[in-house]
Write a structure and sequence with these properties.
4-stranded antiparallel sheet; 10% strand
Length: 831
């Protein structure tokens, strides 16, 4: 039998795995007659009205006129026949009508190229359907169970950092996480296998010693390769201002003692490259310089010319076996170069490049840290590591004090690691591990063993809504401990802190005022940055930037040594963080004229009064750059390496901004026809138009393409242009939206999107709820989403209002019981 509550976790894992698929497209074959019509009052919930015949309903007449041609029992386009439905009981076919609402809101139906209804009639129909569905849902709010949710890589690293004060690289410890709808915290996607669990067990045994240090550590070497070794003309984040290139790493030192640094060779005899000028190399530990030397310059060039290999060896020897002292724990080690004044150009001719023409420079490719060294005797101990201060709330002075001190440490760590849910059996198992470790390795060996047990426990690695021992007959509120866990992983992507656990143990967290106060406190905490880096970046698909390498022949100013992708990411991070931290309206994500730039990115945007490598707030004057649609990173990730992609940009807006994704493209879609040599070149717009002439293709392209055409003033790397480099003609940004709205350029596109601000906020709400709940939203969740949007609208769409309303929703505060499942016989493997 499985130990409780770990046994319950294993059973729940199987129940989730055995669950059926998504609900059917229709709850029945559209055969039921549908319930009472509801009159939609603008700005208020509907009130029941007398039943009416479908033919007398003006909304049904619109559907009959524009939808029956394709969606009927003869054609079944999209597996849907509206002639089997009526508007008598809309809630009975909620899934069908929710899909219809999304298509209507996105302008996808009726398809472009087909006769279009009056847009006021469409908006009236959408409002009627939404109000009817929302009124029915208000009687029985939808609550779903998330299921068993494994910690993903980022959550594991954050939890270890908060629990033990140790920074780990989860990519080297844990398997890759599966992604669903762009997010890597979706329970159904985070599969578990025996090999997964073996890696988590291995990680636990590697992390525990890092937290305690090792006073008996033997010398060991760690090699670091420098990413982007060929792009070291500029300052790099994490390094002191006034430096260029190099690298900074977080290195774990197992004990106090002497260590050595060895830097890769920089001089050579056969090919003497980039030695004309003197390069000053510095090494720093936690920002404090401990080494400096020079490579290159007149004297080194002369020595190599006259002595050849012996001179090269002597120059490179300066970079070897550099001794320094370090205390136990994780420290930042940096190797970089002093930056020369840009007045010292290496070019014979003047250049306008922001790096001042300094291309004759040395580059750092790798370095090695070794230690603790035996030459200075035995390691000096582990001192006062930050992680040890977090772990050892007491330390025994005698053998009699060891057991009670160990119990205090283990119980405190387990309470935080298990999100406040620690029972006597859990503590007993962990103390058994302590006892076993103490027999062989003493008191600290026992603590190390217990910590490994905590990190390998299912209660740490999995989140589940276990509730009480009494079986639930229907949806139930989360316990305060469960609510604290869900809240902390939503706002911090990590485990609850002591204060949140305390409030949960006092059974006060479910109180609305207390819950709201905790949300505000947690949003003000630096850990809320995860809402930018883990939620917003995944919602906007910023990771695609890593897949785009601009063609250096076409965009030399944004590729190779001038690669701007990391700058784009930093601009987006600071921009989104600014909107969130100021508690501004989330509409500012589309409208704000405020951004953050350094000199390189400012020059790329055509701004010439920003100097230096540091990012700083900038007020934009070119309105085309306002908001997300004007950010170089967004424009690059929606392009190809050698050209813009109006289709990709249109799809990105439909998926990420309006929440109305187009249908799946048919197989074997051909590429755009390239321009032929000797013939007048066609613009990308003209070639795209030829590609989508097929009426079937135009059904989607008629929606996607206009959105992308409006952004054609930006090239593939996000640089503003007015002339097409291929045709040498003015870029045509005119387009016609599916609703007939004519737009011309980024400003008109933004205005068209903001004509219905609730559409963008609804998309953001859907994405944030998916992230907060760790599960995909279903059609039955949409009334909750719309209700949140209405409440947030009354609070000027402020960011904190959106977060607070999501947390206050039944979907967040409640859970449903698990479905029945077959009995599972399993054993919990302990470390």
């Amino acid at each position: 039998m499985c130990a409780e509550p770990e046994g319950r976790l294993i059973r729940l894992m199987t129940q989730d795995r055995n669950r059926g698929g998504m609900r059917s497209l229709r709850s029945a074959l559209f055969g039921a007659a549908l319930g009472a019509a509801v009159v939609a009052q603008a700005g208020s919930l509907p009130t029941p009205a007398e039943p009416a015949e479908p033919a007398q309903n003006p909304h049904w007449g619109l559907i009959e006129k524009y939808c029956f041609e394709c969606h009927n029992t003869a054609d079944w386009a999209g597996s849907l026949a509206f002639d089997t439905l009526s508007m008598d009981d809309i809630p009975a076919e909620a899934e069908v009508w929710e899909k219809a609402i999304r298509k209507l809101r996105g302008g996808l139906m009726p398809p472009p190229g087909k006769p279009q209804p009056d847009q006021q009639a469409v908006r009236s129909l959408v409002a009627y359907l939404e109000n009817t569905l929302d009124a029915a849902s208000a009687q029985h709010p939808h609550v779903e169970r998330t299921g068993l949710n494994r910690l993903n890589r980022a959550q594991y690293a954050n939890a270890v950092k908060d629990l033990l004060g140790v920074s780990v690289d989860p990519e080297t410890l844990l398997p890759r996480d599966e992604v669903h709808d762009g997010f890597d915290n979706i329970a159904t996607a985070l599969h578990v296998s025996p090999s997964f669990m073996d890696q988590y067990l291995s990680a636990a045994h590697q992390v525990a010693p890092l937290a305690l240090g090792n006073p008996e550590a033997r010398p060991a070497a760690t090699n670091y390769s420098v990413e982007g070794a060929g792009t070291q003309r500029h300052h790099r984040d994490g390094l002191p201002f006034g430096t260029r290139g190099g690298a900074v790493v977080e290195h774990y030192f197992p004990a106090d003692g002497e260590y050595s640094l060895t830097i890769a060779d920089m001089a050579g005899a056969l090919w003497v490259t980039d030695m004309e000028h003197q390069n000053t190399i510095v090494a720093l530990l936690d920002g404090k310089e401990f080494f400096r030397t020079t490579v290159g310059g007149e004297e080194d060039m002369k020595a190599i010319d006259q002595k050849q290999d012996p001179a090269v060896d002597a120059i490179n020897k300066r970079l070897k076996n550099i001794r320094f002292h370090a205390t136990a724990g994780t420290h930042k080690v940096a190797v970089t170069f002093l930056e020369r004044t840009f007045a010292e150009s290496d070019s014979r001719l003047h250049t306008a490049a922001p790096e001042g023409g300094q291309d004759k420079i040395k580059r750092l490719t790798a370095f090695e840290i070794r230690g603790p060294l035996e030459t200075a005797g035995a390691p000096e101990g582990v001192g006062t590591m930050a992680s040890r201060r977090k772990i050892f709330s007491c330390y025994p002075q005698s053998e009699a004090e060891e057991q009670p001190c160990a119990e205090q440490i283990v119980k405190r760590l387990a309470t935080q690691a298990f999100r406040g849910d620690v029972g006597p059996q859990d503590l007993q198992r962990l103390m058994a591990l302590y006892t076993e470790g103490r027999k062989s390795y003493g008191f600290e060996g026992g603590i190390r063993r217990a910590i490994a047990g905590i990190l390998a426990s299912p209660l740490f690695l999995f989140r589940a809504d276990l509730g009480t021992d009494a079986p639930a007959q229907g949806p139930r509120p989360l316990t305060d401990v469960e609510l604290a866990s869900r809240l902390s992983f939503f706002l911090w992507n990590s485990i609850p802190d002591a204060e949140l656990v305390k409030v949960a143990h006092e059974n006060r967290l479910h109180e609305p005022q207390v819950l709201q106060a905790e949300v505000q406190r947690m949003l003000a905490d630096p850990r809320a940055e995860s809402l930018v880096t883990h939620f917003a970046f995944k919602w906007l698909n910023i990771a695609r930037l890593d897949e785009i390498t601009p063609d250096p022949r076409l965009f030399p100013y944004a590729s190779g040594p001038s690669d701007l992708r990391e700058d784009f990411k930093e601009e987006l991070r600071l921009f989104i963080h600014d909107v969130f931290s100021r508690d501004a309206s989330v509409l500012e994500l589309l409208t704000s004229n405020r951004t953050f730039l350094n000199e390189r990115l400012a020059l790329h945007y055509g701004i010439y009064n920003v100097k230096g490598d540091q990012f700083r707030p900038v007020t934009l004057t070119q309105s085309a750059r306002f908001g997300l649609l004007g950010k170089g990173g967004i424009l690059m990730l929606t392009s190809y390496p050698d050209r813009t992609a109006p289709v990709l940009r249109g799809v990105w807006i439909l998926e990420r901004i309006t929440g109305t994704p187009p249908g799946t493209p048919p197989p074997n879609v051909g590429n755009l026809k390239e321009n032929e040599a000797g013939k007048k070149p066609r613009s990308l717009r003209e070639r795209t138009a030829l590609h989508s002439q097929n009426p079937t293709c135009f059904g989607c392209h008629g929606v996607m393409d206009p959105l992308g055409f409006a952004l054609e003033n930006f090239d593939a790397v996000g640089r503003y242009r007015e002339i097409d480099r291929v045709t040498n003609e003015v870029v045509d940004t005119r387009a016609k939206m599916p609703d007939g709205t004519e737009i011309d350029g980024p400003d008109d596109l933004r205005a068209a999107l903001l004509a219905r601000p609730e559409q963008f906020v609804q998309t953001l709400t859907e994405k944030m709820m998916t992230y907060a709940l760790g599960r995909p939203l279903e059609y039955a969740d949409m009334p909750t989403v719309r209700g949140i949007v209405r409440k947030v609208a009354q609070q000027d769409y402020r960011f904190s209002a959106l977060v607070t309303e999501i947390v206050a929703s039944d979907a967040f505060r409640m859970t449903a019981p698990p479905p029945p499942a077959k009995t599972l016989q399993a054993a919990v493997k302990t470390p």
